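User: What would this chain look like folded?
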Amino acid sequence: MFVTFLLKGLAMMGHGYISMETNIIYNEDCLKTLERLPDDSVDLVITSPPYNMNLRIRKGEYTSRQIVKEFSTKYENFNDNLPIEKYYEFHSQVLKELLRVSDLIFYNIQVVTGSKRALFKIIGDFADNLKDIIVWDKGYGQPAMQEQVLNRRTELLLVFEKDYPISRQFRKRGKFKRGTLEDLWLIPRDLKRNKDINHKATFPKDLVAKILNNFSEPNDIVYDPFMGTGTTTQVAHEMGRRYIGSEINKDYVDYAKENI
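Assistant: Here's the prediction, encoded as structure tokens.
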């Protein structure tokens, strides 16, 4: 069921007030969705963008010629191999738009060959809005595909904020009491669920729930621009939050709608 609401402050545009639907999933590039979202219209963003796993290095240079499916962890029928400059430009643009529409953003990343340089540069570019970094410990590091490479057991939640990013205090949206929430979250991946839906890197529902429990209120609007199979939207719905999702894969959109 769609929910329509008047945006905060009843912002005026053209001949009337702006209205926006929530509890809706868009089968499109997230930048198209973001074009339609007004400033400060979302309470919280929770997302995990593609890792760019299929951008490889050959003889000291990036190459995207070879698609190695066992490396690709995010999508079926998606090459996941943007040139490093394009990966940087795209995610910089997305983050700028997310900071326009929301005050608090949880941007889950995994540092891999195809994203490493771009992500480190983005962290520098957005340092003024980078509130904190949470380490997600998945409990197990899958063996690396090459010799002399560290097994990647952890992922990072880059937390961006507009309200008061110079401080580590979440004065607007932090719901946890002093001394009760650490920056290392041990939450195992749901490998069975990954297999069931043919998506190799779904969020665990417990990870989304932990963010919502500690940084949101009932009826808040939660947006996931890289929705995948809809873990964020499903948990938001179950916990009494409104949701908006964007996803380019129609099969995943259909699955998410069915699941909700």
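Residues 127 and 160 are 9 Å apart (CA to CA). If you want, I can go into more detail on any region.
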